Every structure is written in C-alpha cells, then in structure tokens.
Amino acid sequence: xxxxxxxxxxxxxxxxxxxxxxxxxxxxxxxxxxxxxxxxxxxxxxxxxxxxxxxxxxxxxxxxxxxxxxxxxxxxxxxxxxxxxxxxxxxxxxxxxxxxxxxxxxxxxxxxxxxxxxxxxxxxxxxxxxxxxxxxxxxxxxxxxxxxxxxxxxxxxxxxxxxxxxxxxxxxxxxxxxxxxxxxxxxxxxxxxxxxxxxxxxxxxxxxxxxxxxxxxxxxxxxxxxxxxxxxxxxxxxxxxxxxxxxxxxxxxxxxxxxxxxxxxxxxxxxxxxxxxxxxxxxxxxxxxxxxxxxxxxxxxxxxxxxxxxxxxxxxxxxxxxxxxxxxxxxxxxxxxxxxxxxxxxxxxxxxxxxxxxxxxxxxxxxxxxxxx
Length: 373
Known about the structure:
Blueprint (H helix, E strand, L loop, with lengths): L4 E14 L10 E3 L7 E2 L6 E3 L9 E3 L9 E4 L11 E5 L7 E9 L7 E9 L5 E9 L4 E4 L4 E4 L5 E9 L4 E6 L2 E7 L15 E5 L13 E10 L6 E4 L5 E11 L4 E12 L5 E8 L5 E12 L5 E8 L6 E10 L4 E9 L10 E10 L11
Antiparallel strand pairs: 1-20, 1-22, 2-17, 3-5, 4-7, 5-6, 6-17, 7-16, 8-13, 8-17, 9-10, 9-16, 10-11, 11-12, 13-14, 14-15, 18-21, 19-20, 21-26, 22-25, 23-24, 23-26
C-alpha cells in the first residue's frame, strides 16, 4: 500500500477585477494632505506627534504626490536630533467588523534607511502593536518585523500598500504592490501579543539614526484611507475527486473599490496518487468582472513532490478549463500566482457566478521495477 500524501493549501484567493469605479464600502477616515499648508502636520486633521514626544512631526511636502500636489514626508532621526518623525492618527469605535487600510507609498530611488507603517490596537496607554512593517531602501525589501514575511521594495514610483483587517475573525492580510506577503496574521497578537479587538491608531515612523535598520532618509505617503469592507457575495466549497478535502471559505469582499478576494484554508489528502480537487464557487452579481487572478500558498508533506493546476468553469460548455502554468509543490510553503485571466465565459451571465478548481496530484517516484526480455 502506498503512503498517504497530504497537500496543505494554506491560502487560496480569487480576485475578480472589475471596470466599476466604486462598489461600496464606506471610508470612516481618509486623508490626501491637499488641505494643509506645507510644513509640520501635527495639530491638523487629527495628526499628532507620538505620545510624550516633541519635534517628531511629519512634513506636508510638494516634492512628491500621488494625487494632487502634496503628500506626507516622513524622515528618520539624525545624530543629536530629537528623533525620527513619529506621526500618529487616532481612531475610535472600531472594535468589530472588517476594514481595509490603504496607503500609497513612495521611496525615492536615492533613499537610504527604513521607514515604518505601524498600526496599534491600544494607544496611547497602554500601548499594544498589531502591525509593524518597514520599507528598507538599503536591502530593497518591505519586511514585516519579527520574521513574519517580506517582499521586494519598489523605488522611484508610487506603490499601493494595503492591510485587510477582520476584527471578527482576528486576521490581517498585508499587500505591497499587489503581492500578499503576510497572510492570516492575528490582529490582537500580531506584534506585542495580548492585544484587543480594536483599531486604535496609525503611526508613520521614520526610525532613528542608530536604529536597526537605521531611519529613512525620507519616504512619502499619500491618499491614505481606512474603509469599511462589506461582504458582497456568498462562497461555496466542494471537494470532488479522489482523496479527502475539508476546510472553510470566508471573507469574499470588495477590498479596494475594484477587487474581490476570498480566502480559504483546506487540507487535501491524496490517496494512492489519485487526483483530488477543491472547487471554490462565488457569486459576483454586484458587478461584472473582466479579469481573474489567483494566489495559492501550498506545500506537500512528503519529499516526493507534487503539482497544482488551476482551472475555471466555462459556463458555455460546463467544463473546467486549465489556466496558467502547472505549479510544482515542495515541502516548503510557496506562493503560486495566476494573473489577469480574461473573465469571458468564466463568469455566468445570469448571476455573476465564478467557479475555480484547484487540482493537485503527486509526482510519485518509481520505487520498484521489473524488466523482462
């Protein structure tokens, strides 16, 4: 009897990019920095210096802008100075529900050092951190502190940064330049630990001249929003085919005015090298998608290796059609991406339904062979 191989899919996301400019989701707070005079922002628009600090205000600048003519410049501390910019926006009453924090970031091509994007669940006292990511111009990496994930930094252009926060499930997912690099992290225990279900503050921090990594020579933020994320569609889960699969699907929502995402966790046990599959179905009747994207994080529990293939159901024929390449799984988690598949017949006209299949199979080695002549 051959051994049982287990394929663990920690995340499967399906995104339907639409041509609609706005699909809903209120913004409890936003700032584009256009209404402020050039200079320190502290004391305006709810912005303040870090509790107990002085002379650490970020500067409204016209050197760079994502929209309009102004943005917020955050700089690190210099030797003998008062410390790096440490500029805070407080929030209140955000203890349940799901939110998207989105900011546009700009790191100059000549920048050095690192700046931070920080969110806290308690502020000012006691202090408890949920989210802490640095943009390091020296290593060209965007890194979630405390070894929670990283991705490549882009210099010299405006890049979107998003944190998807679900207080009801205690989960946060972080994206930079569209790449998910922290998935399923606890919000309450994200950094400090022993936190609470609350979004208390945003902190844009420039770092210090002697910090590790050292503070930024300057980076910019613009068009920052904190939006309520409404659930807009139902998701169903199936596991046809050989093997056993089980898990949950959750959190299909409009994250940034044009993208739906759904997250799922499931384990697929492949018995005797049979194919096994998971089918994710969702209705997107709020708007008509025109592109489909998939990100899968997967590994297999044995060194024999395995493969993944993504397919969408063609509603004209009723059959699944493979899209993207064949992905090879290993014993280490990897991210696999299928990008910008034309929606076409993959979206059912009557109700906007999309069905995606993730199919897995094992590359079994030959362990015994007999040859006859």
